[in-house]
């Protein structure tokens, strides 16, 4: 279990940085400033009442300036869900992730990288609750999106595969986890092999 959680934690950090890049240019200036303040608190591992209030303010500002179904609102819901999750409010976190996902699937399409990230975030919540069947189903969807759009050795693909393997392993399904870990290691080895051949 510790091994699986280590893989999962590493994947979450990588996925979060990729998701931030997807939204880097989005948003009303007022909302972007509040979002940046919230992200700084999250990066500082600060999840007190003030952070929750700021996350709620970020969401309200997004809804006011961009609309109820804007990309800003979707990201604000993801950030609010993350804060709820870190505070142990898992039901509220799941509700916010689900609401964000509905907006993204409607506005960006079911194969959007933004959808894939939110699927992974919601899957991570189910993983924490040890609802592994639900986590696996969501991780599988996220991986399918990334594999459709990216190279086999792309960080998003590797991250999604790690998460799925970790969920299978946590469930005790080692026969399903092992091939995923092997594919991930093979994909990581390909760039190294190419460098070795060039030199």
From TrEMBL:
Mapped TPR repeat ranges: 116-149
Highest taxon of the lineage: Bacteria
Signal peptide: 1-24
Keyword Transport part of the UniProt annotation: no
SMART domains listed in its UniProt record: TPR (SM00028)
Keywords tagged on the record: Repeat, Signal, TPR repeat
Keyword Signal: yes
Gene3D superfamilies: Tetratricopeptide repeat domain
Segments traversing the membrane: none
Protein name: Tetratricopeptide (TPR) repeat protein
Organism lineage: Bacteria, Pseudomonadati, Pseudomonadota, Betaproteobacteria, Burkholderiales
